[in-house]
Amino acid sequence: MRWQKQKPIFALFEGGEGSGKTTQATLLFQKLKRIGRQARYNDEPGSTALGFKIRALLIEANKEIDPLTEFLLFEADRNLDFRLNIAPALEDGFDVVQDRNFGSTFAYQGYARGLLKTHAKLMKDVDSSTRQNLLPDIIFLLDGDPKKLLKRIKRETSFEKEKLDFHGAVRRGFLDQAMADKKRWVVLDATKPQDALQNIIWEKASRLLTKQ
After folding, report:
1. Domains and CATH numbers, the chain
2. Residue range 153-171: mean pLDDT, rounded
């Protein structure tokens, strides 16, 4: 049988620190591969050579990096990622399972750092440009009480070291985005068992495959 290029799906996973989004993104990617789909797993920041250097700066961020600089560094990484990884993969017919993207930027830098109060238009314009106006087909938000989720963290980075109020603002940022786009966002209880979450995610993702 002659191979025909599949219509790809673009699935994004978002959530605060310790939410388990990386685990669930990996499980979905593996499931897609097992059923014979062509799929790519991608995360940010740091999925390109230059982006990896940007990631190092962001993870070990200190007081020299102000919120606007932090935002622009994330967007520089995202621009590389979409240009070199995400857009080409989708064009070639590969499913893309993405760990973090614009949702995190607006939750962390927009809400928790307060940039949306002063630079809302800039944030939206820059982010739309870096993503080439591409949006995921579905966004899974692993949501939970930051006080509980942070206890799962084994290694602290600059974000995990932030106070609980910061993580509360991040959570509100995610939930507000989900509320504004209920068609695309799926909010899941991050404290549910891993297998239960995996089953729910697959049930939602597989609906996209049946529409092709």
Report:
1. 10-210 (3.40.50.300)
2. 81
